[in-house]
Amino acid sequence: MSNLLKWTIFIVLSIIWGSSFMLMKWGLFDANNNATLSPYQVAALRLFSAGIVMIPFLPKALKNIPRSVITTILFSGLIGNFIPAFLFCIAETKIDGSLAGSLNALTPLFVVLSGLIFWNIKSSNQKIIGVLIGLFGCFVLTYANYTKPFEYIAYSGFVIVATLFYGINVNLVQKKFVGISAIDISALAFTGLIIPSLIVLVFTGYFSLPLTNYNFLISTGASSLLGILGTSISTVIFYVLVKKTGALFASLITYGMPFIAIAWGLYYNEFITWLHIVALFIILVGVYLANTKKLKWVFLK
User: Fold this and answer.
1) Half-sphere exposure of residue 156, counting CA atoms within 13 Å on the CB side?
2) What is the pTM assigned to this prediction?
3) Which of 51, 62, 73, 296 matches a 20 to 30 Å C-alpha distance to 84?
4) Could you write out the DSSP letters of every residue in 278-300?
5) Which domain holds residue 142?
6) How many domains does the chain have?
7) Chunked in runs of 10, what are the mean pLDDT values of the chain (301 residues)?
């Protein structure tokens, strides 16, 4: 993959996924900030839409994918998409999209940690220091919201757990799915989520809502767009990037995403202070140290 194509994908995915936090808000609330769909309905619609889009690719995927990894791919869809989708939506019922986007920058740090814990991938002192700096930035980001109710701060924990699942899944894709195309992986992983998502929609009463009402149409449209563009299509592209460039470079998309999310937050007058920017900078410094091999400092030798 050429550098031009690699960085073009980087920018496009940063914009798409950086905007996803606002699409979640549009799914959850109307223009007057009144609740429309529940977080479970938004997440389920997102995943249901993503799965439906991938159905045409499923027959070919089932022919190409070795039977020995089918269960692992379905598990990947669970931890890399299903669970995080619900965690993010639950979090955004209480926190701003800009904060969710900033906390999402922790993903590369969890790539390093999960690689060390689950795959015995060796980490240098520099990577460990980078992880610690990034986690410190997370604490600063949490402190930046000290004037907010405790519930606001507590709900940011859902995002942190979601990024942990993302980090585990990035390594899983790179280590376990060698030789399998990105579109085959995505087709199986997302279509496997159709039935669970439909069950959630039924049991949460989604089909009993006044879906022809303008506000519900907008919320449904935003949730579906999030699934089609921000989940299925972008995930296929992301998996290609993982397989062609490696897990760490692909996870660096979280460098660009927070700034897109913050830009949306400024547009909607969300709670953003200089301390939020400083905290994000600290996290990104940690991410940089954890993902680069070029720095050679005396005290790290």
Assistant:
1) 26
2) 0.87
3) 62
4) HHHHHHHHHHHHHH-S----GGG
5) 3-300
6) 1
7) 80 89 94 93 96 95 93 94 96 92 85 83 80 86 83 92 92 85 90 97 96 95 94 82 73 77 87 88 85 54 40
